[in-house]
Every structure is written in C-alpha cells, then in structure tokens.
C-alpha cells in the first residue's frame, strides 16, 4: 500500500505506487554512465615527479630538526637561540626589578 499527500485537502490518502513515489508527475530517469576522465596532460607516476626547491627545503629542515644533538626544537636555528636568550634576559631583568621594587616599597625611608 502506498500513500501520498493530497495538497488540495491537506490529508494523506492512498495512491498507486507509481504516483506515490513520483510526486508531481515526475518520471524516473535512467542513470547515465559517467564519461571517462580526460586529462590535459598524462598523469605521471608519483616516483617520477621532479623534486622542487620547496620539497628539497622541507627535506633539509626535517634532517636539521630531527638530528639527535640534544637541543630542544625551539633552539635548533641560530636566530631562535638569539631570540630565546634575549627573552630570558628580559625576564631576568624584570624579575630582579620587581624584587627590588617590592623591597623598596616594603620599607620606609
């Protein structure tokens, strides 16, 4: 048994299966086979691709950061070391300054 919504009365009524599954007079269509993909160029195998400069740079960075030299990753490059030392110096100066200020404020002169 198949049912279909009757838009005139607003009720669900019984209907023949063909009209229930194809509402509004729609008809079933045949599924077409997809045409084969046509490439503008022939695809090359993955191993045959030429390494670009970016690929070489990535491989070099992987070797550099993966080396077991005992340094943490954030200190592997020279410029990272300079910024790390600068930040630690500022932190030390700030800590000493805040301790001095607290000492100065805690005692009357």
TrEMBL record:
<dbReference type="InterPro" id="IPR003177">
    <property type="entry name" value="Cytc_oxidase_su7a_met"/>
</dbReference>
<keyword id="KW-0496">Mitochondrion</keyword>
<dbReference type="GO" id="GO:0006123">
    <property type="term" value="P:mitochondrial electron transport, cytochrome c to oxygen"/>
</dbReference>
<dbReference type="GO" id="GO:0045277">
    <property type="term" value="C:respiratory chain complex IV"/>
</dbReference>
<dbReference type="GO" id="GO:0005743">
    <property type="term" value="C:mitochondrial inner membrane"/>
</dbReference>
<keyword id="KW-0812">Transmembrane</keyword>
<keyword id="KW-0472">Membrane</keyword>
<protein>
    <submittedName>
        <fullName>Uncharacterized protein</fullName>
    </submittedName>
</protein>
<feature type="compositionally biased region" description="Polar residues">
    <location>
        <begin position="1"/>
        <end position="12"/>
    </location>
</feature>
<dbReference type="InterPro" id="IPR036539">
    <property type="entry name" value="Cyt_c_oxidase_su7a_sf"/>
</dbReference>
<feature type="transmembrane region" description="Helical">
    <location>
        <begin position="84"/>
        <end position="103"/>
    </location>
</feature>
<dbReference type="Pfam" id="PF02238">
    <property type="entry name" value="COX7a"/>
</dbReference>
<comment type="similarity">
    <text>Belongs to the cytochrome c oxidase VIIa family.</text>
</comment>
<keyword id="KW-1133">Transmembrane helix</keyword>
<feature type="region of interest" description="Disordered">
    <location>
        <begin position="1"/>
        <end position="21"/>
    </location>
</feature>
<keyword id="KW-0999">Mitochondrion inner membrane</keyword>
<dbReference type="InterPro" id="IPR039297">
    <property type="entry name" value="COX7a"/>
</dbReference>
